[in-house]
Amino acid sequence: QVQLVESGGGLVQPGGSLRLSCTASGATLDYYAIGWFRQHPGKEREGVSCVNSGGSTYYADRVKGRFTISRDNSKNTVYLQMNSLKPEDTAIYYCATLEGDNDSSYYYTGGSMAGNNWGQGTQVTVSS
Predict the structure, then answer these.
(1) How far apart are CA 69 and CA 29, in angstroms?
(2) In whole angstroms, how far apart are CA 62 and each of 25, 50, 72, 73, 81?
(3) If DSSP codes are grouped into helix, strand and coil, which group holds residue 106?
């Protein structure tokens, strides 16, 4: 079974950038769709972005234009580049393999990101 480990979180000032990594072991990520989720204190986990095995990407409205998801199958890693960070981006960020290998149109027409194998999370804090 694939195991996922997130890294790259930390403290950054508003307007700053961070790059999160989601690295897999135990299996190749080549055939998996991978999603990034986040959870604010006291709130439910929400989908942020995802990429399918073919490279089709989806972004939630709250991060569109600021975050970029990418994958490097040679490194068995998926990245989330986060720019123009805002205090409301403060959360624990998780990556997960997704149920289904859906094209982005699935999500842009109302489909939900459903994770089924999760990393342990990495804290992102945006504060001055």
Answers:
(1) 15
(2) 30, 14, 25, 27, 14
(3) helix
